[in-house]
From TrEMBL, chains A, B:
PANTHER family: NICOTINAMIDE-NUCLEOTIDE AMIDOHYDROLASE PNCC, NMN AMIDOHYDROLASE-LIKE PROTEIN YFAY. One of its GO terms (molecular function) is hydrolase activity. The lineage of its organism: Bacteria, Pseudomonadati, Bacteroidota, Cytophagia, Cytophagales. SMART domains: MoCF_biosynth. This is CinA-like protein. It holds the Pfam family MoCF_biosynth. Residues 8-175 form the MoaB/Mog domain. Keywords: Hydrolase. It comes from the Bacteria. Belongs to the CinA family. InterPro entries: CinA, CinA-like_C, CinA_C, CinA_KH, Competence-induced_CinA, MoaB/Mog-like_dom_sf, MoaB/Mog_dom. It comes from Hymenobacter luteus. NCBIfam families: cinA_nterm (TIGR00200), molyb_syn (TIGR00177), PncC_domain (TIGR00199), PRK00549.1 (NF001813).
């Protein structure tokens, strides 16, 4: 069996060095490569200057046997990567007819005038294998040079993702005959990383030597990923899955799903299974709760609608919150979110409702209710459940965390 | 005048290479360094292995005269940076008393037991200058070695930001005297990169030699960034800004702002200036439009509320869409979004309203209205304006693009 290659990721573009764009491509690539068992040796971000790209390529091939590049494939003159690679690998640019037809098709479809610079996107170095980019105009390119594989992809994230998934990863698997590796992901919520680690310490210590556990924290919880390496025995995946019931016993309802699935998807599946419709009444979350619920394909089968009530007036008129409740308890109170959830249920005629109201910040805090004071509620035909939490890590994270906690409340209540 | 140093940013940690953490530190550092006129030559992310950190340092000092490192300064055993640097610069670790007192103070304040690993955070290589970290336990370290400055900072973003702002940037300013560099950003919307480039070709060609133009595309438009280098003449920034009126003439209302500002912020400022309140009636965007509007701090001064109407029933009951309109034109039609926007205006009593309805996909398309058929509308007291577009790049991007186009319609109509 050939030894596994190290990979270097090279992201190209002055905008990365100026900090005007955050490099999210590398993290996606790193995750996907790790799933194949390939190690990323280094991530290198370089400018759009030809000499610096070449210098980085010379060094990368000394460190790694695979160099994955993104960026610099656009139609404008600061996009140099293709020309640099043609020179680097000593090839002419030639017209790739399938790409030209594809690009022409895109411009026809959108009824846009096709310029010469667009036509040039179908030029590729003669000695590369073209990786068809179904979702954009710049093709990917695969080069093999002295035992090293070089791949160039567009920097636009969804185009890079398409090419990684459909072209690059399968070809790497084939080229390097990567040994089988299995991943089992368990989604937990509501426990911090170190507390979680403590809870499952003995379970983790008893894992077989070929199974590794990784803690992948996110805002509100931790994903647990088991990576199983080939040990020559059959049924690796089944043996890994057999480890889960004892984990489930330790963590109970803190586990919301197995597999790469988002909380809003897990919630959607529960609602579908139970034939329940849902709606939201949102103040501080400003629509993010509805957005997360509706980001799931097919969510129209259970999601009906929402009322975003930023102003108190709308809370009263559209959600039937009692003015006395607002006067006595304030807009950010468990009493108010309870009435918001109940009001929404009645108004929209949905089975279950979520409501939120809080001080997201940076303004609006008071000594009694500082920024980060957040209330949310769940209501169904039988009961209303409310929560108050305190969480302040800035407006954006406060809102995100609140939506996660509200979705989790929905999940917990629906299964009761 | 000494020549300008190039900077290399080095972020250290396996979690970056595995893609478990997105490197946002580099972008912050890149932005701040650009403001001082320092060029980032390369960003390098390396593992927690000592030999690989040393190899990266050896190469970095060949490329750059300043090497800024983050990460690997925590108290756990995979945090190696300090030990590697002590060896690299040939120094013993010595106790830094001010840091020890600071760390002890932090543990006292939070009433946490202080472990030996915490005490070790006050050890620093004898030949560094300690950069006091007021917001964390790991100090920054400044080394000078053979004309190169090496700085090590914690990887925790808010600690790195504190040290950059209060220690590193002022010291770099003092250490290197750098001529001014200026960035002017122009936000455009509604033109693709290549079409935009064609529109401003002559303008771009006539730019002074010390001013560079970069195209930074995003979903729905392009940010244009002018970078001006010192040419020995005064008023660089003013001369760059004098280039903008002719750009404005070429691009007209495709320019929505100057400077680093988001579309939703620009829209918010317009609404505030005109004293207008806003609300949204959303079908396909499912709350994202409201979320973007409310993501702006202080948006409660103009944003009132929304109705998310995924089901036709809610469109009729909560937004007064006529059943005949739905029956004749369908839910995804300019007629329906017009009634949604008008209905929301009346219901919520807002000055201006936006509405959306479309087939976000992946399901729900028909031969007449395929996935990506999207309608949106603007309504105020005097008129209703509708648009129909066709855009299909997957559910998530379809929804994002629709919100951007709807916000842009609001911007265009409000200024009329």
């Amino acid at each position: 069996m050939p030894s596994l290659p190290d990979v270097e990721i090279m992201t190209i573009g002055d905008e990365l060095l100026y900090g005007q764009v955050i490099d999210t491509n590398s993290a996606f690539m790193g995750q996907e490569l790790a799933k194949l068992g390939l190690r990323v040796r280094q991530i290198t971000s370089v400018s759009d200057r030809a000499d610096e790209i070449v210098a980085a390529l010379d060094l990368a091939r000394q460190r790694a046997q695979v160099v994955l590049m993104t960026g610099g494939l656009g139609p404008t003159k600061d996009d140099l990567t293709k020309h640099v690679l043609a020179r680097y690998f000593g090839a002419e640019l030639v017209l790739h007819h399938a790409t030209l037809e594809h690009v022409e098709g895109i411009f026809r479809r959108f009824n846009r005038p096709m310029l010469d610079v667009n036509r040039q996107q179908a030029l590729v170095p003669a000695n590369c294998q073209v990786l068809f980019n179904a979702v954009g105009t710049a093709p990917g390119m695969w080069f093999e040079s002295q035992q090293t594989v070089f791949v160039s992809m567009p920097g636009v994230p969804h185009e890079m993702k398409y090419l990684m998934t459909h072209e690059v990863l399968p070809r790497l698997q084939q080229h390097f005959r990567t040994p089988p590796i299995e991943h089992v992901v368990v989604q937990t919520i509501g426990l911090g990383e170190s507390f979680l680690a403590q809870q499952i310490e003995a379970w983790e210590a008893a894992l077989p030597p070929n199974v590794k556990l990784a803690y992948l924290p996110y805002l509100g919880g931790v994903r647990l990923r088991l990576t199983g390496h080939d040990d020559g025995q059959p049924n690796l995946r089944a043996r890994m899955e057999a480890l889960l019931p004892s984990l489930q016993e330790l963590l109970g309802e803190h586990i919301f799903a197995e597999g790469e699935i988002k909380l809003e998807e897990a919630v959607g599946q529960l609602l579908l299974q139970r034939g329940l419709t849902v709606g939201t009444a949102e103040s501080c979350t400003g629509g993010l709760l509805a957005h997360r619920l509706t980001s799931v394909p097919g969510s129209s089968r259970y999601f009906q609608g929402s009322v975003i009530a930023y102003s108190n007036d709308i809370k009263v008129r559209e959600l039937d919150v009692k003015p006395e409740t607002l006067a006595t308890h304030g807009a950010v109170s468990e009493a108010t979110v309870a009435e918001m959830a109940e009001g929404l249920r009645r108004r929209l005629g949905v089975d279950v409702a979520l409501a939120t109201s809080g001080i997201a910040g940076p303004e609006g805090g008071t000594p009694e209710k500082p920024v980060g004071t957040i209330c949310f509620a769940y209501a169904d035909a039988h009961r209303t459940v409310t929560r108050q939490i305190s969480f302040d890590r800035g407006r954006q994270l406060n809102v995100e965390y609140t939506t996660t906690m509200a979705l989790n409340l929905l999940r917990q209540e629906v299964v009761k």
